[in-house]
Amino acid sequence: MNPMSRMRWTTSMVLLFAALLAAADKKDKSKPPDAEHIDSGSFGVFVKGQRVLTETFRIETDAGISQVKSQLQESGGSASVQKSELKMSGSGELISYTWSDSNSSLVVTPNNEFLLEKITTASSSKPAEQPFLMPSTSAILDNNFFVHREVLAWRYLGTACHTEGGNLQCKPSDEYGVLVPQDRTSMRVRVELVGKEKLTIRGAERELLRLNLKGDAFSWTLWVDDKDKFKLVRVLIPDDNTEVLRD
Fold first, then answer.
1. Which among 54, 51, 55, 81 has a CA at the least distance from the CA of 68?
2. Could you list the pLDDT tens digit for every one of the 247 residues in the chain?
3. How do the residues of the chain divide into helix, strand and coil, expressed in percent and rounded to 5?
4. Is 1 inside any structural domain?
5. Nearest-CA neighbor of 98 among 151, 145, 55?
6. What pTM, to 2 d.p., does this model score?
7. Domain contains 2
8. Contact present, 199 and 184 (Cβ < 8 Å)
9. Domain residues for 241?
10. Tens digits of per-residue pLDDT, 3-16?
11. Is 118 contained in some domain?
12. Which residue from 226, 164, 219 is spatially nearest to 195, judged by alpha carbons?
């Protein structure tokens, strides 16, 4: 494999994952860059074919900080029921993660060798704290936020893959430590490249890149579009009869 034949990404993705800095386009550093849009849109969450949630998200970088904002709405509802914001440094390290609903909120920040989670509820007078012995490079995969899965897929593709002869070549799999803040738990997950697959989405045939996301107690399938900045298009969770589609 030719180590010089790296995948080329936009500068915004490079800011998200420091491993790709060598492939980034050089820009004038004499003036700060404007906020750069990476991806935005919405995912529909379907259980047994019925839409139950809509996730609206936006990913951008601003002054070297990557921000992933998302909100969830129940089907037919007008107000968001959950919100989250993930901030990372240009080297991909966690700066902060915040989540809230109508009854509670939480924030995760690095604290020396730990990640510290603070949880506030309507009935509590002071936040409860829970430390996790995890580095700041750990991924956030919170419940119901599928944009976090897109970010993890980009991380795998950006650090474990390169192009050779115009074809994508990746390590068979890579493992990551992740935090699930709403569950107050950490775990190890594995991302695996399966390859190109043809599938029909909303009546149109598409060829997408399939990845498997696995943990000790779950197995998900992700499809990303390698012709459109590797955006997440579909997620299948067979054990829960759940399908997620980009709108």
1. 55
2. 222 233 333 334 444 443 333 333 334 444 455 678 999 999 999 999 999 999 999 999 988 899 999 999 998 776 668 999 999 998 889 999 999 998 999 999 999 999 999 999 988 878 999 999 999 999 999 999 999 999 999 999 988 888 888 777 888 889 999 999 999 999 999 999 999 999 999 999 999 999 999 999 999 999 999 999 999 999 999 999 999 999 9
3. 15, 55, 30
4. no
5. 145
6. 0.86
7. no
8. no
9. 11-246
10. 223 333 333 444 44
11. yes
12. 226
pLDDT tens digit sequence for 100-144: 998 999 999 999 999 999 999 988 878 999 999 999 999 999 999
Place of tokens 């997408």: 208
Give residues with Cβ within 8 angstroms of 145, minimum separation 6: 55, 57, 70, 72, 84
Quote the CA–CA distance of 116 and 122 in Å, as a whole number. Answer: 20
User: For the chain, how many structural domains are there in total?
Assistant: 1
Token couple for 239: 């054990």
- From the list 57, 221, 29, the residue with the least C-alpha distance to 148 is 57
Task: Report yes or no on 122 lying in a domain.
Answer: yes
**In the structure encoding, which two tokens stand for residue 222, read together?**
């992700």
Residue 114 near residue 121 (C-beta atoms within 8 A) = no
